[in-house]
User: Fold these one by one.
Assistant:
Number 1:
Amino acid sequence: MTSRLRPFGLVLWVLLSACGSDGGGDPPPISVDPIQTTLVVGETVKLTAVANNSPIVWKSLDSGIATVDGNGLVMGHQIGVARIQVTSGVFSAMATIGVVSPAPGSAQLTLSGTAYYEDRVLNEFGFTGERTPKPIRWAVIHVVSTDGLTILATATTGADGAFAFPTINNSNRQAGVYLQVMAEINSPTPITIQNDPLHRIPYSFISAYMDDSRQDAFSDLSPTATVRSLIGGAFNMLDVFLKGAETVEPLCSACLPPLVAYWESGRDVTTGYDGDAIFVKGGDAYGDRDEYDDAIVAHEYGHFVLKNLSRDDSPGGTHGLTDSNQDPRLSWSEGWATFFASVVLGHPFHVDAKDIGIELAFDLETLFSLKVPSLKEDAITARSEIAVASVLYDLYDTDVLGPESHDKVTLGLAPIWQAVLQMRSGTAPTTITLFWDQLLLAPPAPVDDMFNVFAERQIAVVLP
Ligand SMILES: [Zn+2]
């Protein structure tokens, strides 16, 4: 684990420490005892470290909550959770201290408010620099006591991010509570954002600490996952995946398996779907990170949908916007995913932003791209993923911009979805040509008009 993880939340570290010494064999190079304890404000507790090397150095990572001296003596200053780190050479260990009030907690506690994450605003030139609060919808939220770090109650945020806990009857503890918002959704289909396949730690963040010895009710709370905390991106991914699930739900209720996505700020993995989980790039040397690139995130959800509800014979491999000589199974899979992203987001614009500028941006409706001026000419044949995406979008969309043939057809999603679903049982390699065959089984529009959409992108399909 790198120190990058630490800003992600206290509970994240608690989970790490719990599995930090299960390697068997040699004892860890450094350990601390106790690994977790409770401390009353104004009082002290002594921690003990055992290390192979000396000297050891003590440090509080949350010195406003509790401080530690050179002998491991911890002093509690205010209600909260403090991480006490002990270091010896290159090794370190951590203890978690729940600091509580001397007074007992409320026996009749209620809390309510709205959970938010900060979204980075995008346009065709990249991030605008603005940040806008968005509700964290349908996510799991806990009330946690600083006394023992015990979960007192669990609820789910609503469609507007609002949450309300009915009265929590619990007086068998000292005062001190906080909210923990999880990057986890249970319904309509389970989605969780985790740090990596090895540690599988779901993201969460916590609210300010509250002293419930003085009041029973806390309202208008607004816990927020900020961009600066390096965790807002996990909640943006959660929201985009939820939009994907909400797109599928009316067509196929509760038919998708649980989704796990892995992402970590700064971790340079290739964004993709491996048939099991979605991976999202947390950043690279060129400032390209994908967690706020809604179109990229939704594209991967499109792969997830295709694989689980239809069929995906894509051989994978490298591919690109201007490549019109792809394996047609690859261009089908990629084209579907790009099309699906536009349906999910409700617009045809795709951007892959970098910290400064863009990696790529294009409009699926017009095939205009600042980065790739030749896109409209390049996106032809069944071997071009953008031709596939463009045809699907023109079949789907209800905009009628002008007299162009491609905008005569306004199918909506349902007939396209039906044809794609039927490809699950198809025996031919899964391509846009097979999609056309499925579409013709029950033509949802005049066949000539649909044919013209394909012809415009030079996709060779046969009229019946
Ligand atoms: Zn893809």
Number 2:
Amino acid sequence: MADKPFRLLPRLSDRNRHFWQGGEHGELRFLRCEPCRSFIHPPQPVCPDCLGKQLAPAAVSGRATVLTFTLNHQPWVPSPDHPYCIAIVEIEEQRGLRLMTNIVHCPAERVSIGMPVQVVFEKHEDVWIPLFEPREDPA
Ligand SMILES: [Zn+2]
């Protein structure tokens, strides 16, 4: 579709499908360790906190904070929106639960560290890519 930027799509597997297809249900999902309740990303077979193997996908709120970001001015791929913002966000539910993503629906020069954001999904084929847009905090 012409209105969406080009994206490199992930290869789906049983281990990551919950993450890339949660957007179909409007949910950002991570593996969660049943015994210790830690969210785990990227997906792996064993919980790094307690070495537990009882992991199941669970949805988070989709609320996050911009930890760090960079503006990409280089048109590596054909895309209408340059510059765009590549960011690492920290998910609200758990310190250290981080995602590399793009900040969208916001001029790149307005993005700042500590900015509250929320997930939005961009569908490509059978993948829902989690991106983040600015979030208005209720005062
Ligand atoms: Zn655990």
